[in-house]
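Suppose you are handed a protein chain with no further information: no name, no annotation, nothing but its sequence. What can you learn? This example shows the usual starting point.
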Amino acid sequence: MKYLSIIAMLFFFTPSFSQEKKLSVVWDLSSTDTSEQAAVFRQINNALAQVPDMQIEVVFHGQAIFAMMKDSTQFDSRIKAAKEKGVTLAVCNNSLRRYKIDPSQIKGEGIVVPSAVVEMIRKQSEGWSYLKAAH
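A reasonable first move is to predict its three-dimensional structure. Written in structure tokens, the prediction is:
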């Protein structure tokens, strides 16, 4: 009986080694297709509804950077909502240079990263999941 009590105490008072790892995902968004862009914001909301503390970063590169321009208003409310939920909205500086856009033209919710490809590789090397934007 004494050993059973010790085993029970160990079971209840030992930290769980099977605690779930925090989920993190980086979304790769390079398309100008507005239905694809809208799908990413919808999928973010769906993911956060299931796992509210999930770390999410969307990397805008190629022509998708135009969605993050100050003069683009189509996704303003979704961008603001995503940022308020803690989503990182990263814009590729290589793409900005390619299209001769000054980084100051990016919405305040965005951050500029040197390279979309390197950003996604870094995230994956840190254990983040990778999703290619699609609808």
